[in-house]
Amino acid sequence: MHFDKPTYSVRKSRKKDIPKGLYTKDPVSGDIVFNKEVEDNQMVVPRSGHHFPIGARARLAKLLDEGTFVEADAGVKSSDPLKFVDSQPYPDRIKRYEKESGLPEAVICGTGRILGLEVSIAVMDFRFCGGAMGAAAGEKITRAIERAIKRRVPCIIFSASGGARMQEGIYSLMQMAKTSAALGRLAEAGLPFISVLTHPTMGGVTASFATLGDVILAEPGALIGFAGARVIKDTTKQTLPPGFQTAEFLLKHGLVDQIVSRLEMRERLFDLLSALHVRRKLAPPSTATSAASIG
Questions:
Q1: What total of structural domains would you count in the chain?
Q2: pTM of the predicted model, to two decimals?
Q3: At what angle do helices 265-282 and 285-294 cross, to 10 degrees?
Q4: How many alpha carbons lie under 13 Å from residue 43 in its C-beta half-sphere?
């Protein structure tokens, strides 16, 4: 007896391509998260609390009262004092950084209000040359500090940097002393400075203004340090403790005063600055200067 082979209609099912840019993997939980949901939440994953990097202008928009930010020194940009060339001329790199980041420099500065309290503020952006501090960035940060002195208002700096900008050599390293000296004058004026360390804050930025705050805050999980962990391990010939150079480790060991979620930063800054500013306004000048100097 003969039976015919059954005929099957086979249709290959193709997996639908997911459009790029819609989803991101959360590095903490491994969950796939909807980008729009994260963006609406200030680049913080709602479930795990993981903080993705956020641009300087986006941060300012969420931090300051609407319509109060006035940018300053936007025309201060990087030059090429050493005529530096590696695989390409330094000015060409600057043009690429400007195009990719949409920013004129690695830091945006100006004045604005946080819940009605006027501040002078500088926000670094890692997208521009890894937030590296060159002469222009250092000048802008110094002017932000001096602006706080002139207007008699608190100063806030959000750091995000890989350190000094190698293409500017000694001109870059000089910014460490320059910004630190300006903060000394701010302290003498009895005005508060709050430093906020974000991911990552490294190198000469950590070794200067970023760790000179009256209060030092950090975002959760931020990498904070001077040299990289591998360099330190090779130099000291010691095994580094778990979580070395994280915000949580540095909070435990006293470098960081508080770890604050980006979602709570606006209110926390207002509370801290209100307390610091009122205390210093009420204190005699000598007491205010002394408190600022040891802050």
A1: 1
A2: 0.86
A3: 140
A4: 16
